């Protein structure tokens, strides 16, 4: 039985003070929480340390939104895995569609980052997903399996890796993939993993859905056989909504 995982991706939102306040509100909203669902929060880099302190002892994981694949050096604007680990991150999101779309990330650079995160002892959330044009062209399967195989090229062990299927047309648009549409792609991703790593690994890997997940649709999505939780953008900026989504995964 795969344990569900729900992560709030705060993207470029909230100051350090606002982030700390929101993290504290999430803990309060979760109350006793639920052991059935793993939860995580990905604030901005400047807020990681403060949010990590606020989350201490709550059981909620501290997650980074990205990282670089070098250890250190002349890479202005970048942050290394060592730095993220030192502030208490346990997961790093890699290959979010906004990184691919606006910051030129490719399957190759995603692959380098994944290797670096896993080697550092942190876990990875690998994001994949097709654009609206790709869906309309009928190439969703090709695109998503290329992103999975390209991202995981040469990665021997994916025990510490979660995949997030996020159709680009559903991110921040209010358009959620229907639970059947999402399930179809999740199955395809699991089959791609099966082709690479075998049945046991493919049945164990967790695949989150992301793209306009709300408290009102989380339960239906999470009930699908191959959907193992969610990566939540907009709705994670409200403590009560995010807590309700985590509870839908319990
Ligand atoms: P959204 O974002 O929930 O605001 O659609 C999801 C994501 O990009 O992770």
TrEMBL record:
Residues at the active site: 96, 166
Keyword Isomerase recorded: yes
Function field: Involved in the gluconeogenesis. Catalyzes stereospecifically the conversion of dihydroxyacetone phosphate (DHAP) to D-glyceraldehyde-3-phosphate (G3P).
Assembly notes: Homodimer.
Gene source species: Pelodictyon luteolum
Protein name per Swiss-Prot or TrEMBL: Triosephosphate isomerase
Family to which the UniProt record says this protein belongs: Belongs to the triosephosphate isomerase family.
Lineage: Bacteria, Pseudomonadati, Chlorobiota, Chlorobiia, Chlorobiales
Domain of life of the source: Bacteria
EC number: 5.3.1.1
GO BP annotations listed: gluconeogenesis; glyceraldehyde-3-phosphate biosynthetic process; glycerol catabolic process; glycolytic process
Pathway given in the UniProt record: Carbohydrate biosynthesis; gluconeogenesis; Carbohydrate degradation; glycolysis; D-glyceraldehyde 3-phosphate from glycerone phosphate: step 1/1
Catalysed transformations (reactions): D-glyceraldehyde 3-phosphate = dihydroxyacetone phosphate
